[in-house]
Amino acid sequence: MTTYFFADTGLLLGRSLRHITRSVDTIITTTILPIAFMLLFVYVFGGAIDSGSDSYVQYLLPGILLITIASGISYTAFRLFLDMKSGIFERFQSMPIARSSVLWAHVLTSLVANLISLVVVVLVALVMGFRSGAGILAWLVVLGILLLFTLALTWVAVIPGLTAKTVDGASAFSYPLIFLPFISSAFVPTDTMPGPLRAFAENQPVTSIINAIRDLFTQQPVGTDIWIALAWCVGILVLAYLFAMATYRRKIS
């Protein structure tokens, strides 16, 4: 069956994407929260926050992009949970398709949906005054980091999608991920935080990812942040993938 993995995944991806197009409110909902945060912090709190940047939206956008991803991947767990409860997985198992293609279709759907949400958020930021002199290569690196982060968190989302007992439980796991950027360099420099909080903020994965993206946008040397960011993303991806696949095998065995 592995011979047909890509064809099976493509077919099931088309199915998932059709579900997305029939509920455009899903993408709209995932973009409302980060855009609301961006509007709130730029126009309400921005004047009182010293970020060391001429434009607060310049400083803020990298963190908002990560919140967008964290908000979007909750729907992966939601859609996967519904498929588990509807019995469609049992139907797929009776068909001659690669079993892992079912999960990969959901994962790739998450990448497409989140990419659309990220584009919408960036367009709103441009309207609000965001500007970057970064070249094409820097933008491609930013895109690569965001897609890798999305892929890692999506595989994390697969786990509650497979194991949750209720639909609320399937998507509730994303709440801590949405608020993790608040304890990072997303909104204020970490050196303004008290000792223990600063230590946590500077050593959690979101901060290094935000700092790397911010430096790429502002054409500053990225230093070690980009390697730390990539290490976090790859580490989370590998562990989440292995755990999710092991959980999936138990479910279908």
The biggest beta sheet is recorded as: none
**How much helical structure, as a percent, in the residues?**
over 70%
Poorly predicted residue ranges? none
Distance between the termini: 17 Å
Strand content: under 5%
Rounded mean pLDDT score: 86
Shape, principal axes of CA atoms: elongated
Give a quick summary of the entry.
The chain has 253 residues and is an all-alpha fold. It is built from 12 helices and no strands.
Task: Characterise this structure.
With 253 residues, the chain is an all-alpha fold. It is 76% helix and 0% strand. The protein is built from 12 helices and no strands. The chain is elongated, with a radius of gyration of 19 Å. It starts with a helix and ends with a helix. The model has no long low-confidence stretch (mean pLDDT 86).
Key structural traits:
mainly alpha; 12 helices; 76% helix
Reconstruct the topology from this structure:
Layout: H1 5-22, H2 25-45, H3 56-72, H4 74-86, H5 88-93, H6 100-127, H7 136-163, H8 167-172, H9 174-179, H10 195-202, H11 205-217, H12 225-252
Helix pairs in contact: 1-6, 2-3, 2-6, 3-6, 3-7, 3-11, 4-6, 4-7, 6-7, 7-11, 7-12, 11-12
